[in-house]
Amino acid sequence: MRNHFDRQLDKLHIELTTMGGLCEQAIAVVAKAMLDRDVSLLPQAYVIEHKIDRSEREIEGMCMNLLLCQQPVAGDLRTVSTAMRVIADMERIGDQAADIAEILTYSGGDGMDCASHIGDMARSVIKMVTDSVEAFVRGDLEMARATIAYDDVVDGLFDQVKAELTNAIARDPSQGGRCLDFLMIAKYMERIGDHAVNVAEWVCYALTGLHPKNVAD
What does pTM read for this prediction? Predict the structure, then answer.
């Protein structure tokens, strides 16, 4: 019975890793489209988003089967319930990558010259997503905590992008519309970072039984 549960848990980890990889791909596609000003890449983001949605449904079904049929003990129960929280955040990451694609579709990527740090934001949130999912799969508490701390880097980059865009509008008010599009893109990236933090926090809960926000309170 235990061996069967462990095999199912291993399969769950594989599916979560795959879903995390799809999230990374979605961000990478919209980042490349933005940096290269190549809107022809953007349809890929919507295809990947649909794959992420499908993965969420499949993993949710696996989790429900483990909960209802395998009757996991306390530690395993935390792992499975955490997986359900994790996929919810990853699904939102896919949605936000698609939101960025939508903005880029009608803006054509114009305005990149106004926000030089936005590419750094994209690379940073990809790192956060990768590390948060890997922390869950590996059961790595230190990696989860490092991911939470790394959010300060993304927040700092967001502030830099915001300052760049504000200065660009001050220099040339006619650029206001394009700059606001890129401010929205930067905000979506910041939110992706927040979702990666959520994943890492739930990893901490799965491993320790304590959620970092509750400890902080």
Answer: 0.90
